[in-house]
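Give me the fold.
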Amino acid sequence: MNENKTQTEAFPEPEEPKSKGGRPKNNPGIEAWTGAALRVRRVARDLTATQLGDLIGVSQSTVIRWENGDAPTEAKVTALSELFGCGIDAFSRDPVIG
């Protein structure tokens, strides 16, 4: 090891886990993203993933990734909550089905 390197340079902090798109897997804007909550709301509105994506400006594959647990950005969570008429916390808990 180079003697001039500091301890942090020699042993850098591990990076936060990233999604395939390069974003952090757990967005700090939403504590515990639950994709199932998004899926339940989308299906209840009779929307396809493509239609939902068109409404908020993302691709169908992005919606599917979110439904599978990859957290969206805080701005997109806000857009989803406005679209579905719920608070952002509605996406951080399991949906009530019944």
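The two ends are 61 Å apart (CA to CA).
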